[in-house]
């Protein structure tokens, strides 16, 4: 991606700062004292067991969920101070469930990614942004199809194209690979890497620890609403920590080609 919305801030600087964030529903703690930075130019993978609070944390980062206590800042400013329209120009969100209320075509869904830029100079980039996003998500053959009739994986990729077309500096992706075939899983992580190379901050919720290990700059593990580890894949993905967090025995092996950690369950013969 290029054009007027090209990130100008230096990579490595803080895009989002989560400080002492807790989120309760009634008296039930969903997130507990989460503190973490998200930096431009990096892919941060958020992993953890079902119900750990990953989607909730992503919603807190996006500003869709207001923490019970603690603060979340974007570009140095508390999210509470952001206007919705400015927020939509600063961060894009791929939700876990790609529901769309009406029978839009895939093209219309992708076009929605440009809505935040209506009336700005960036709208000159609409056509290019949509074209590039459509190609990157490999959905050019689906654009005239009705979104509700697409397969789960096709919906996920069309929704990803919408998020890419938005061309924001922060990109939040909740399990974008869950419904995807092998090739498209890799492609999505390649896209995430490309966004980071452009200086964008990418936070991506993943279940596949090997995928996280292969592509993330850093991995954050969430368990029972708390951050239990954060760091480089090789440091975070240890057999003992995975056993503790997931209650599953695994082997962590180095990828013969890249040296990155591969995580496989231990299986009896
Ligand atoms: P993950 O994405 O890691 O699987 P979630 O963030 O979706 O987990 O949810 C974490 C836990 O909090 C789950 O047990 C979920 O049922 C609960 N939860 C999340 N949001 C709400 C809510 N608004 N009301 C009640 N429970 C919630
Ligand atoms: Mg989730």
Automatic annotation (TrEMBL):
Record keywords: ATP-binding, Nucleotide-binding, Translocase, Transport
Entry keyword Nucleotide-binding: yes
Pfam families from the UniProt entry: ABC_tran
SMART domains noted in UniProt: AAA
Top-level taxon of the source organism: Bacteria
**Has keyword Nucleotide-binding?**
yes
Q: Which residue numbers delimit the ABC transporter domain?
A: 16-249
Recorded hits in NCBIfam families, A to Z, give: PRK13548.1 (NF010068)
Under which name does UniProt file this protein? Answer: Hemin ABC transporter ATP-binding protein
Species source reads Leucobacter chromiiresistens
């Amino acid at each position: 991606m290029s054009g007027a919305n090209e990130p100008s801030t230096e990579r490595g600087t803080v895009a989002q700062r989560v400080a002492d964030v807790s989120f309760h529903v009634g008296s039930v703690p969903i997130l507990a004292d989460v503190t973490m930075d998200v930096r431009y130019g990096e892919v941060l993978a958020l992993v953890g067991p079902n119900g750990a609070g990953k989607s909730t944390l992503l919603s807190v980062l996006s500003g869709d969920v207001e923490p019970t206590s603690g603060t979340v800042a974007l570009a140095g400013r508390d999210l509470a101070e952001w206007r919705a329209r400015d927020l939509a120009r600063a961060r894009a969100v791929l939700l876990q469930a790609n529901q769309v209320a009406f029978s839009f075509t895939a093209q219309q869904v992708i076009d929605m990614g440009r809505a935040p830029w209506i009336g700005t100079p960036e709208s000159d980039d609409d056509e290019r942004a949509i074209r590039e996003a459509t190609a990157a998500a490999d959905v050019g053959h689906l654009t005239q199809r009705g979104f509700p009739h697409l397969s789960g994986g096709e919906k996920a990729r069309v929704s990803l194209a919408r998020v890419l077309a938005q061309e924001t500096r922060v990109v939040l992706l909740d399990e974008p690979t869950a419904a995807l075939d092998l090739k498209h899983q890799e492609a999505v992580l390649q896209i995430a890497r490309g966004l980071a190379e452009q200086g964008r901050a990418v936070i991506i919720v993943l279940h596949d620890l090997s995928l996280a290990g292969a592509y993330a700059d850093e991995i954050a593990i969430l368990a029972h609403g708390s951050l239990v580890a954060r760091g480089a894949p090789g440091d975070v993905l240890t057999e003992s920590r995975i056993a503790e967090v997931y209650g599953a025995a695994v082997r962590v092996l180095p990828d013969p080609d890249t040296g990155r950690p591969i995580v496989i369950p231990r299986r009896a013969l």
